[in-house]
């Protein structure tokens, strides 16, 4: 195959790597000798051979477990406990021993029994089907011991810059890999939730699985790019694609929360626009979800989702981030987001019309109530069932890092204090209804998006009533600069680095100062590592962005000194033109 050629699969570890292809064919040949006549087989000897093979496999599994635990942690390494359990599973051991008693050599008895179990798992759906890989792994260990076959290629010593190609990888194979040497993995078989894929993610090795399309034709030695975000394998990618892919992916994933060099904690969270984006966000080291755009549940369908569907989607996100905060934005439609079945009013200028909280409080109060019921029920799943603070809607929040888990709910397009008060009343009345019905619920942290100049001017009043504010720079830049974010003709105006927008951001954090409310930013500006120091300088507590930029932003947060960051923010706030801002920040025009 000569490139560039793009093969598609399932993105598994959402990182990108480039290197030299090397096929892994699964190690030693495990072809069995022909099955002998049963009368020539001594069951006592075969039983002993089987026992010895089990012990050898057990030792190897424990070794693999220890190695995996040292590299990827106990949770992922626990798959090897399951492997060891297969060695003692009476449903397998008894059947193998019965076959041996009937004159079957140990290796044939093992293969037959495992093939049957693998076939059963393969016949199931999704994750259960992926457990077949675990059985293959254990089977191969037993067969290697019985056939005295050499251990497979030592995957722990692959040369740096290897892109490993394989029909499939077992969890044991994957746990061997050295993430410093392996630039990527692409397999023909496998799913995102197979244990091999989970271990690859824990090792942060870029990976694409399920590349059924022509991967076999990629020759050893070819340059290959693995884009685990897009789910693509690019053969001979060329300089341009390679440079672009690596630029967005040269920071290591930092799974734990980060602080500035002088110790100021900054949460780095993810923006998600669909349930499918939640697991990759966690893989990129997100400290929770800072913007869960709930409108995705309402788009591309003919009627709104019911309470149960919304509840389940939010609980799934909470479960993916058990220790972190999930900020769900209530329905933000209108403007550029049209939903045909809602019959939104026709307006000459929808961006300045009935949008976000305006619709929720009036035309679609029914939808708002259903959404709040789902959210308050889901909040009972947050840590201690109270969303980590503000359980009585009293505006109080505890920004102690150890207490930041649970659900938070924010209202979009706020421009008046009265809207916040009305929304808080609705929350209170939904909580009272749920209590009267005896339904388990809790009041989450409550906040507002700051995306209108009005909200920025009123930040002190909003912060006094709420647990948090989150600056939406995409809309804020549009409204401050009177420039449609969708229009190329005014793209130059729609710039978060315009001094007017920056002053609106600063006014927001300054307004919240002295209250208990924390302030985050969830517009695109938050995800630009070149602007991280400035964001810290504005006093933001949380930055939420597309998952792909989380590692780079976390890396940058750790380098920033907050006093210097404040000086930078002050210098920027003295600027009068966008060119001056760029100059102070050392950015090209
Ligand atoms: C994050 C924002 O919201 P949206 O979903 O409209 O981009 C924003 O406006 O900055």
TrEMBL record:
Molecular-function GO term, any one: kinase activity
Residues annotated to bind Mg(2+): 451, 475
Cofactor(s) the protein needs: Mg(2+)
Pfam families, per the entry: PEP-utilisers_N (PF05524), PEP-utilizers (PF00391), PEP-utilizers_C (PF02896)
TM annotation in the entry: none
Matching InterPro entries: PEP-util_enz_mobile_dom, PEP-utilizing_PTS_enzyme, PEP_util_AS, PEP_util_C, Phosphohistidine_dom_sf, PTS_EI, PTS_EIN, PtsI_HPr-bd_sf
Residue ranges occupied by any Phosphotransferase system enzyme I N-terminal domain in the UniProt entry: 8-131
Binding-site residues, phosphoenolpyruvate: 293, 329, 474-475, 485
Statement: the UniProt record of this protein carries the keyword Transferase: yes
Keywords (A to Z) from UniProt: Kinase, Magnesium, Metal-binding, Transferase
Active-site positions on this chain: 195 (tele-phosphohistidine intermediate), 522 (proton donor)
Keyword Repeat: no
Biased composition (Polar residues): 1-15
Region annotation Disordered: where it falls in the sequence: 1-21, 381-404
Domain PEP-utilising enzyme mobile per the UniProt entry, residue ranges: 159-231
Record-annotated PEP-utilising enzyme C-terminal domain positions: 256-561
Protein family membership: Belongs to the PEP-utilizing enzyme family.
Name of the protein in its database record: Phosphoenolpyruvate-protein phosphotransferase
Organism: Halorubrum glutamatedens
